[in-house]
Structures are given as structure tokens and as C-alpha cells.
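re the bet — no i am not wrong, look at it urself. input seq straight from the record:
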Amino acid sequence: MPKFRRNYKLGDVLKVYWIDASTDEDWQYIKDIDKKAIRVQTVGFYLDTTKEAIIIGRSLSDDAGLEGKFNIPWVMVEKIRKMRE
């Protein structure tokens, strides 16, 4: 588990910096392959963590409704910042 994993509370607003997987479907020459990683920043409400991932949501309602759940595997996470409320 990454060293930046902390005890976040349900609803904490986090910015997760992570590397996404990518694919190309077209024929191309090996010498022309794009080798850059796709780095992503996702802001969301902390929901939970598992051994494999951090789980955040895009929207939370007053009655604990959830919209837009995101599971981001720990192996893809570069850093996490807690945002101020």
C-alpha cells in the first residue's frame, strides 16, 4: 500500500494524481509509438479504500446518495492531496 495513504474521512474532498492506461487501435510503425504516460487529476469525495484501490465519488447528496463512483488502483496513484473545504 502506498505511503501516502492516510485515514481520510467519508466526504473529505481529495485531488488524486494518477497515471491512466491508454490504447491505440490503428496500425502504426514501432518507431512512431507515443510512449508518454497519460497523467490525470481527479477531484472527488472520499468514500473508502481497499487493499487495491482508493474509491472517490463525483457527487454526494445530503441523504448519502452517490453519483460517479471512481475506483483508482493504488498502483496508478502518484499522490493525493486533501483539499480545503
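see?? The longest strand covers residues 38-49. told u. also The chain has a mean pLDDT of 90. so pay up
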